[in-house]
Amino acid sequence: PLPDIYATAELGIFWDMSQCATPDGFSDAEALEKIINSVRVLGHRGHVSVSTYGDMTDRHFPSEAGVKLNHFPAGEQFAKETKMLEDVVAWAGENPSPSTLMIVAGDVAEELVDVVQLLKTQKNYNVLNIHPPPRPRPTMVVLIPPGN
């Protein structure tokens, strides 16, 4: 469970949808609901803000969800990471500790890792990380013709 000081505090979710895609069989809204419910199960009862990053061309969230969509076409990794870093810093400035920061992403820029670590260790933010499941390792099949 979340410590009491974080239970009613702000929760900021920063979701890199190009690295941590919506699971098969779920809509974007259903996946977000699962993410938020996973924190509610831990005891969070405070306000939730959500920012998403990646190719938002076919992404759909209900308007009442208040999701901030940040569109970055494939190949704009640096711009996407920079925007995510800027948004985390701005969010932290607007939501002092105790607050909970959730990063939903695969590989993140070293600068973002440093900022998140600083918020956790120096500023007493609660930090939750969600990573995509590991990719299956490729299997090598070697076919040996008969008689060899």
UniProtKB/TrEMBL annotation:
GO terms for molecular function: RNA nuclease activity. Transmembrane segments: none annotated. Residues 11-129 form the NYN domain. GO terms for cellular component: peroxisome. InterPro entries: Marf1 (IPR024768), NYN (IPR021139). GO terms for biological process: regulation of gene expression. Pfam families: NYN. PANTHER family: LIMKAIN B LKAP, NYN DOMAIN-CONTAINING PROTEIN. This is NYN domain-containing protein. It comes from Noccaea caerulescens. The lineage of its organism: Eukaryota, Viridiplantae, Streptophyta, Embryophyta, Tracheophyta.
